[in-house]
Protein 1
Amino acid sequence: TIVNYLTEVITITQIWRGEKDVKVAKC
């Protein structure tokens, strides 16, 4: 779905910026 697509894009973007940002975003 579109929501899942956006979630994946955001996750990839966060990973691209740094794992620390990903952990904060998931929390």
Note: The chain has a mean pLDDT of 75.
Protein 2
Amino acid sequence: MGDKYNLVMSMEIRPVIEIKDLIVLSVGALALLLLQLQMT
């Protein structure tokens, strides 16, 4: 039962981490674009 619980937890946590990484990357890209627009 412990192994099954751990497997479910890891399956649920992984997508959340990926979504957080995507949000961070998109926010960083937008920040770079805004900085480039302000420079010009």
Note: The mean pLDDT is 82.
